[in-house]
Amino acid sequence: ALESIDFKNGLEQFQNLVEKMIIQKTKESSGSYTKDDDEIDYEKFYTTTRTLFGSAVKDQDIQAFFRKIMSNPDERPEWLEIFGCFSRKSVGMSSPSKESMVFLVSEKQQITHSVVKRKDVIKGIVKEPLLHLTVTASQKGVLTVFSKKRKSFFSYSFYFHQDTAWITACDFLPNLKYVVAVTESTIILWDYKSKESEGNGFVIKPMKNCLLCVCTVTMADNLAKDTFLMGDDKGHVYLLTITSDDFIMKQSKAAKESQFKVLDSEFFDIPKRKLHDDWVGKIKYFPALKRFGSCSTDSINSFVLDDIKRLEDHLPVKEFSVPKGVNAFTYCGKAKVIVTGG
Questions:
Q1: What's the CA gap between 24 and 335, in Å, rounded?
Q2: Is the predicted pLDDT of residue 195 greater than 80, yes or no?
Q3: The dihedral of CA 100, 102, 107, 109: what is its sign?
Q4: Is 252 buried (19+), middle (13-18) or exposed (0-12) by CB count in 10 A?
Q5: pLDDT the model gives residue 239
Q6: Are the C-beta atoms of 133 and 190 separated by less than 8 Å?
Q7: How wide is the angle at C-alpha 274 spanned by C-alphas 273 and 277, nearest 5°?
Q8: Is 132 left (phi over 0), alpha (psi -120 to 50) or beta?
Q9: Given the DSSP bridges, would you call strands 260-264 and 201-205 parallel, antiparallel or unpaired?
Q10: What tens digit of pLDDT does each residue of 50-69 get?
Q11: Would you say 100 and 32 are in contact if contact means Cβ atoms under 8 Å apart?
Q12: Residue 222 above 80 pLDDT?
């Protein structure tokens, strides 16, 4: 608490220092400035900043901040920049294990493995903390699982050939140990543990509308099934439960797509409900709340937060409106708040 008070006081003094510099520079530009003992040059700015924040700031960030103010006092830089939050060109300048009194950042490990080729982009990235897995899906069909073993990363990748349909999102099914991804017209279930060189899994199709997002509903009551939610471009939210028996009982006799077996969507009970009047941009299940959230650029039904049972019983849902809609949201359990971004 004392450190927080000291930092807040230091930040206020720093902002006052910046205001004085801006006033000084403005007067210099207009020719009305007269030098006196209160003149702030680089040496004074450096000494004062170092006194206020100590080792939490680096020399190059102090220099860059000062130069930015002097070159254009009308464009006031954010105070965060004094800590180098917006200048990451310098790599390896300090040990990642050192703690800053402002930002505590855990040590990171960069994955240099290239999973996509030129003109392809990552459309989804999710982390499975219990299994230490990270899943990525590219627009053109490259699904990759990074597995952290023995303090290094092993990756399992394959390319899903899908004509013109693009992958739009992905997630991980923790009970069945499958990767789920959605495209404009299909649902992909990939068995990443398969030893087949081209991958192995299932494709559920056809889906009438374009699927845009997917998320797993975390439930530990049955280890033989997984439930996930999907959103489409017409404002619908879908609920689908997959069991291990589905992989055996509902295989279609249609041709295989690589090693993927086709499952007819008509064989599945997929409740859906129109919750928005525009695209469903994001969908997420919060185990702590036992609720799912979905958002849209729809200005009337912008954000919905309710039980997944509402997708089947069609009772009124808890929702609120935001002008021009909601693009993103998240939940903080410690603060017990949901934050949305429009």
A1: 42
A2: no
A3: negative
A4: middle
A5: 95
A6: no
A7: 170
A8: left
A9: parallel
A10: 999 888 888 888 888 888 88
A11: no
A12: no
Q: What is the 3-state secondary structure (H, E, C) of 153-197?
A: EEEEEEECCCCCCCEEEEEEECCCCEEEEEECCCEEEECCCCCCC
Q: How many Å is the Cα radius of gyration of the chain? A: 26
Q: Is 40 left (phi over 0), alpha (psi -120 to 50) or beta?
A: beta
pLDDT tens profile 76-96: 778 888 887 654 444 444 444
Give yes or no for a contact between 265 and 204, defined as CB atoms under 8 angstroms apart. Answer: yes
Q: How many Å apart are CA 280 and CA 231, to the nearest integer?
A: 5
Are the CB atoms for 321 and 300 separated by under 8 Å?
Answer: yes
Q: Which long-range contacts (CB under 8 A, 24 or more apart) does 135-142 make?
A: 135/170, 135/171, 135/172, 135/179, 136/170, 137/167, 137/169, 137/170, 137/179, 137/181, 138/167, 139/166, 139/167, 139/168, 140/116, 140/166, 140/167, 141/166, 141/167, 142/115, 142/116
**DSSP category for residue 257:** B
Which DSSP string do the residues of 86-133 spell out, in sequence order?
T-----SSS-TTSPPSS---------------TT--EEEEEEETTTTE
Closest CA to 78 of 25, 14, 10: 14
For residue 213, pLDDT beyond 80: yes
* Entry pTM: 0.66
Q: Is the dihedral of CA 341, 167, 210, 307 positive or negative?
A: negative
